[in-house]
Each structure stands twice: as structure tokens, then as C-alpha cells.
């Protein structure tokens, strides 16, 4: 079978959805091979595309012809060097030139221009552009002049009208060529290739020197002819031909303008900017056809953005164009007054394009106004004058109701404030810096920005899709950045405008206020704090002004409620006094909650409002809102408010609040809808954040509220039990429910949720003190001990399920934090259950939990740790010794290593290192420290290496403290805890410390390597702390001389080691390594 037949068969198979998947993959693989071998397969591809005549092309599959063009594109775009090296480039290009030239004559001049498959026209224009890039100007210098005669060639017609097929093809070809040799968007998407860049430059130079005049004249002639024909048809005249009706003529004008615009940036401006072209473009800005107007606006933007060497030439261009006057007239003419449902989308798009033109012109003028670039005074003055004329036009676009139109001038607005005339030195006040005109402009801009932050009253955020809501939130974010820019110029101007607008609404918050205005007023209160600087931005001082004479150390005991409110305090006070929290609209209520949640410190200076806020949070506006998405967000805000303002909540209200919450404290596990029978529903339910994850905030809030009843211990325990008992009952039911097969997972999920809920309640209580006390155990701790026992029972019953093990770790971490040593008795059983069924992937979480437990309970769990440390370490090192296969395996390997090192370092930091040298574990110590030393010198994992160095540094003082060394004076020092450990220090750790920086792969300039160097410095300093002069003598007289250190350098090093403190020596050692590497 021939290559041609193989290609046809492969394309038929690949494009047939009914074919076998394996066979399709083979077909695709074959076609990729054909494409990659374009230097050999291009003749077949050329034949398949061109065919014998128009009839054969029409019969050929479009899939085949498009694939043929892909092969030719690969040849012309990526295989030029191969053709040149093979000495076949010129011959190949000549064949393509003649064959494709004949095809153009037959198909475009005389034929229907692929009428059966119009998308092939666009694809072919790209292919011919690539051939042009390979052959112009050396091999095909007549490329443009050979096409020009065809533009009016229409066989069988005596008319001199342009041939629509050839004309369209010629214009698309210009667009493709300009895109390839100049378009920065296309270029930025590719990797930079110097030869391609040089080729594009040479082609632009050649066109400018040889063909630009002719090409531009041809495009202008096409425009003039087609515009004349279009005007005649609009006046009632008959079309010249069926293919040149009004629709086709509009498309041709649009395409010609785009082609003209495509080469404006890189040809001589004297060709494109002439009285004739400018008059024609300005006329087209008012054409009845919106596509023509938009294309014209784009062309003028290209002219405006044209790079010119001399600033004075650029200013002269703007004066010639007088675009400011034109834009002012068009801005007024294109204002949209009807409702959105009645407005033509094309008219909106055209107005947006005018906004972009305004912004583009403004940006260019701003560049000329930049004093730092040193423009001539006349240019600076002239550009400033034109910019001032443009500002009112920009503001009208900015104020447009349509956000896309408003956003079109954002680039200009963002740069206006960096113009030298708007900058000010810190010593200047806005009053002395800003002229009245500039202040007026800032105030007008500010007013528009604040109004643009308002929702469209016709929209309902609840009914908008996610994209529309996100678009508005993004708009608000952008507008807020502009407020920042104005605030940097005049902070008072911004804060005063925000406060005035918000207060005007809040002080009349009645039925006459629309929901959008109400929401905006609350949002502005929310936003105001972001513009406060220094002491005014945080704490209670953001909301009230204490007398200056009050010393800082007296402020905690001061009566903050008696102090006068700041402007932001006044706004929040007005918010609380208004009835806006009761406004019957979700967007208003949601923004209200976001605001009170953000500024909890306000309620510490105006405590009388706490009750009212809590009422709104717990009624149908808040955690009982009918809409789940609102409830879930308010759950978090409620938690944050309770956490921030717990000391301001009247204790007598605690039980009332909790009673009102009981119906939302019911845990109901929900399974996701299965998408396939193989889907792991339990994993799916646990990995996606759902309603229950938000509900956990409520359980923690309950814990916080119960903790406030500390002065009524019996009541406190009773209220706590009233919340935990229903959960424990649910947990008991889950344990007792039979599980029938792997798909019956609801009891497991319910138990998981309940255990986490119980843990979250414990988290709400304050952290336990680590100081021993003789006071009786509080009753609430006894309740949490019951909870811990119940969790252990469920873990014993269901510990074959990872979800239950994970939930138990989660809950016990929080119970331990709150109850401290009172829970120690349960730790051995907990560890036993967690380890027995634990999988390797759980090790990281288990080790993190162990580290936390060691830190919280310390000597209380020494016995547990003593039994656990050796078998756990052996298991970890066996896992780390296994071969690593695949990315997931590598990540798990690294995470496990880091978690283990973090764990053993926690043991050191918490003075628990005696566990390593107990009777049970001392035989394991040599293997442990040798393994960690190997990790420390493995530069392929610098983060783990640094952790290993930290452990080893701690070990020197812990296990080898000499009596006459500096570290012996520490209160907890234990002398020579491990006999002979100093030998390990000198034979293993010292060579390691100096060997790591000497490694060829070590690079001190890398941040990770620098961090490791600092830790090595700590290790060496700790060795000195542990061994004192013995270490100095060994280094100075034995080790360093053995490494050929000059005596004076060795003496200096050990002197620094002894004299400098740890921080100083770390820096000295890093500098030493850096200088050694440089030398």
C-alpha cells in the first residue's frame, strides 16, 4: 500500500468515532510520524491538498486536506534547517511556489475559492504566509507584485470590480504575514529563537524597502473601491455581482481595515498616516456597520501606539489626528440609554472599543508627560494639555453602566496617578501639592469609582452564575486599587468620600433605600479600615481615640468605652444603630456579617452592640438562613465573632445562644452522587469540602461559649454534656450499625464526622497550662474525658477504616491541647489502635500528631514514647530504604523523612532526649544517628538535610556534654550521657560538617544550601559547647591540618569558634564558605 493510501486510511480511522480505540491510537501515531517526516512526505501532502482540479478537491475529505496543510506547515515552519542541510530547500520551495500559484489561479481567480469548505481558505492563507517567510525576498522577490494583477481578474466578466475571492485571500495573507513577523502576542507564545528573530527583522526591512509602498497603495485602493460599492448598494443600487452583496462588502471593508492596521506598527508612518487615510478612517468611525466601526477604532489605536523615535514627532502625530475632539463627539453619540435587554450587544462592543482607543491615546500621552524620561519642555506642556482635554472623556467612559466599557479605560487610569504632576514628596501636603483642577479631577474620579462599586439593582447576586459574580468581585477589587492610588496622593480625600457616602445611606436606612445602595454603604464600612494606616489600622485604637497622656502600659486597664469614636468607629456605630441588618436582601445581610466579623475590636469599645449582633447571627438572617451557601459562610463569621468578642459576651446569655443553635448542631453525613460503580465514595466525600466542614466552626464556637461558664462549673459541665451527649449517641449508633459490603459507608462517614465535631468542641476551650497544679480537675474536663473514651471505643471498633483513624487523631490533638496531662492515661491505647492498622501514607500525619503530643505532654508520655521510639524508627528507616518509583512515591518518601526528622527534633527540643538512651532504646541509638547523618549529607533533599543537621547539633550537647565545656553550666546539662559519643562526633560529624560545603553539587548561592550552611555552623558551635577546648584542640591540631589547612587559617577558625556566639559564628561560617568557594 502506498504512503498516500496509508495516510487516507489512517485519517479515516482516526476521524471515525466508531472505530476501535487501539486502532485509532495506531492511526494517530502513524499520522504524527508522517507529520514529523515532512521533509520526505511533503510531496504526498501537496498532492492530497491540491488534487487534480477543483472537482477532485471538492470530493476529497476535508480531514485529509487539512492534514495535508499541517504537513506543509511543519515543513515550512520547523524543518527549514533540515532542507537546507540536505541541499533541497530551493528546489522544494520552487515546487511549492509553482504548484500553489497554479492552485490560487484555478481556485481563487477562476473558481469558487473552496466554497464547499470555507475554513480551508483561512488555513491555506497561513500556509502560504509560511512559504513567503521561507522565500522572500531572495527566492520569491515578486511575491506581492505577482498577486496584485489577480485582484481584479474575473474571468468572463468585463467589470473592473475587485475579485472578491482573491481580494479576501490577499487581505488575509497580509494579516498572517504581519502576525508572523511582528505580532508580539504570537511571538510571546513561542520560545525565542535567534534565527527566527533575525529572519523576521530582515523580512520587515525588505518589505519596507521594496514593497511597502505598493502593498499599502493596494490596500487603500481596495478600501476606496469597496467603500464606494458599499455606498452605492446602500443607496439602492444593484450589487456588481452575487458575491459582492452588502454583507460581503461590509466583511471586505472590515478585513481591509484590519489588514491595514496589521502593518501600521512596522512600516513608515508617512505611508499610513496621510490626509486621505485619516479622513477615510474618521468617516468610517460613523459607518452604519458596527464591525467596520470597531475595526476602524482598532486601526486608529495601532496608529496612536506607533513607536516614533522623537517625542516631538509623536506629539505632532496626536495634534494632526485631533482624536480628542473626535472621541468627545463619539462618546456622546454612543451613550447607551435603553435597558440592557433592549441594547444591541454590538453597540456596547463598539463603545468599549472607543474606550480602549481613549485609554491607548491617554497612555501614550502619559508617557510624554513623564518628567523622568526628560522630554523637551514644549513636548511636556503640549502632551499635558492634550491629556487634560482627554480626562473628561475618560471619566465618562469610566462612569458607564456597562462594566466592560468602564474597564476599557482602566489601563489609562492606573497610569494617571504615576504621572509626575500627581506624585508628591512626603514633605508636601495634598493642599500644597494639588492644583484646584487636579483636586477636582481626583474628586470626580473618586465619586465614579465609589458608584461603580455598587451592584446593578436589576441584578440579583443570588440568581447570577458564578462567572458573573466573580466578574463583579474582580471589578470591585480593581476599583479598590484605584482608591489606593488616590489615597497615596490624598488619604483624607478618599476616607472622607467613603465615610460621607456610607453615612448618607446608613442614617436614612429605611424603605426608600434600594438594596444596591444599602449593600454599598455596608461594603464601604467594610472597606474603610483598609485605608487606615499605623496605629489607626489595628486594635481598639482604630475605633476610639484614647487621650494621648495615657501610657501604653495603662491602656489595657483603661475604660475604652468612654473614649470618643474615630471616623471608622462612627461609621460602625451608625451601622449598628441603623436597621440595615434587617434589610430583606441576602446581599445586604451577607455584607453586614462580613463587616461585623472583620471588625471584632469595635465591639470591645462599644459592648452594648454585642447582643444585637449575636441576635442577627443566630436568627434566620444568619446561621438559620434558608440558603445553605449563606449559612455556611455565616458559620465561619459566627465563629470568628465569638472568638474575637468572647470576653464581651454576657455570661448569662451563653445558654440562650447555645439553645438557639441546637438544631444546627445535628451531624448528618451525606454521600455524593456516584458517577461510576468504581468510584470511591468515601474518599470522594472526605476530600471535597462540604456542609459539615463549615459546621465544624459552630462546634468550636460552642466550646468557646461553654468555656465562658468557668465560674459555674456544674452548669458548665451540664451545658457541655447537653451538646456532647447527642453526638455520643450518634457515634454509638454508627458503631452498632452493621456494614454490609464496601459500598455501605454511611455509618463510617457519620462516625468520622461526629468524632471531628467532638474534637472541634474541645478546641473551643482554652489551651491547658503545662505547669503542674494541685487544683481539682474541672468538671468540663471530666466530660471531655468521657468523650475521649467514646472515641477510643469507636476507634477500636472501626480502626480498619482510615477515615476513623484520621478523625481520631484530629479529635485527640484538640482534646490534648485543652485538657493537657488529664488525658495521658488514654495515650497508650490510642497509639496502639492508630499504629495497628496504619498504612504507610498515614505516617506523615501520625508523626506530626506524635510531635504535637510530645510537645504538649512531655514527660507525661515518656513511657509511651519509650516503647514506641525504637520500633517506629526501625520501621521508618526500612521504608526510606525501599526503591522510589514514580512521582507520588517520591513525594511520600520525602514527606515521611521530613516528618520523622521533625518528630525526633521535637523530642530534643522538649528535653525528652533521655528516651533515646533508656535501657530499652540505647542499643538503637548508633543506628539512628548514623542514619540521620546520612540524610544530613544528602544534598538532593536540602530541606531534610537541614532538619538532620539540626537534630545532630542538639545531640552533641545532649549525649556528649563534657564537664569542662561551656554547655556544662546549663541547668539541664547531663554529663557524658552516652559514653564514647564524642568519638562519633569527631569521626563522623566533623568530617560531615566540612564535607558538605566541599561537595561539587553544593552551591552557597542557592537559598537551601545557604540554610544548610547556617545549620552546619550551629552544629560546629554545639560541638564546641559540648566538648570545649578538647574540640578546639582536635580541630586545630588534628582535623584541619589533615585537610591541608594553613596553620594561621586553622588557628583563626578555631578562635572564632570559641569566641563568637552561635548567631555570630553562623554568619562567620557562611561567609567563610562563600569566600572559600569564590577562591
Automatic annotation (TrEMBL):
Main location: cytoplasm
GO cellular component: cytoplasm; nuclear matrix; nuclear pore
Domain Exportin-1/Importin-beta-like: start-end pairs: 118-290
Any GO molecular function: tRNA binding
Function: tRNA nucleus export receptor which facilitates tRNA translocation across the nuclear pore complex.
Similarity comment: family membership: Belongs to the exportin family.
Name recorded for this polypeptide: Exportin-T
